[in-house]
Every structure is written in structure tokens, then in C-alpha cells.
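For concreteness, we quote verbatim a single protein encoded this way:
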Amino acid sequence: MEKWVTGRLDAPMMVVRSDVSMEKTRLNQAERKRFNELRHERRRREWLLGRNALKQLLTTLDRGDDTTAVSFPDRQVSLTHGGDTAFAAGTTAASRGIGIDYEPLREIDTRIARWFLNEAETNWLNEQPECDRVAQLVRLWTIKEAAFKSYPNNAGMTFKEFSIIDAAAAVTTVVATGHGACIRVACRACDPGYLSIAICRESP
């Protein structure tokens, strides 16, 4: 995965995966306080998976392993949860930010497309074989989510403000409407599901 996404985005990328088989995450005092504030068991499990992946990544980047020191969006790291898996992505390249999203395939109502796809993206989706539309919808969601996470000024923005230039491509450009940014996203099938990683740079 690291070699593939590094080549596609033309930037050194690190990807760390954490799942339920991993050794229990060791938490510092601040992390333990945050963990104890979580009330739902599923949220606690997801949070621990994320901390596990993020700690490994921060250590590799020589940023220590205190995950409470990270505030997203971040220029170097991003985090995603999906099912019983978490992924963290990191880069040493100059960027405005990076983003990662993973979504496992599942049954969903394709009518949700109207909430995050623009007209051109919706038309492309409707041209796909009906048996493939759910998978393609999940794929497009991960592309938009990764792009959104990579954009440092995303507060108050919606997914519809992020336009995918080539919805069919494994590597595409995403444009933030009205904003001077160039976001490149690489997406590939992963276990069954889709994983997307984005890097945001200034417009040329």
C-alpha cells in the first residue's frame, strides 16, 4: 500500500493499520482521561484502534507517541476508522494537509448520493451497472472524505463543495469550490471496501 500510494501521489507516504488482533494500546495520562470520557463500548474500541495506529505513525515521524498533541486537520498525519480496523497515514512531504478514509462495503441506500455528490458525479454513478452502484458509491464517499480531511480550512464546508474531476479514476484531482487548493486522491480496493488517501497542495 505505501509503495502504491507514494507512486500515485508523488509524495512519500506511510500507512499504518491497526485491528482487533493488535496488542492493547498503552495510554498516557491525557489519553487515559480522554478514553474514560467515552461512554459507548463501540466508540471506545474504535478510539483505541485509532490510537494504536496513530501512535505507531507518530513515532515513525519522530513526533513522539502522544496522540493528544495532534489536532486534525494536520499537515502530516490523518486517521480513519472502519469496522474493526483503523488506518493512519503520514507524509514527510511539504503539504497543506493529508487525509485518509476507509469504508468497508455494506448494504446502503444509494439515494444518499444526493447528500454528497454533485450533478456530474451523480450522473456518472447512474451510468454504472446497477449491481456495482453501491460499491462505487462507497468508493466516491472515501475519495470525498479523504479530500475533505486533507483541506485545512474545511470547517463549515460540505462534501458537495469538493468536486471529483474523474470519478472513474483510481487517482484523481479533487477541487474545493471557490478555494485555491489542489487535492490529489489515490483510491484502491481494500479488504472488502475502499481506502482513499489525499494530499492537499497549493494550486499551481
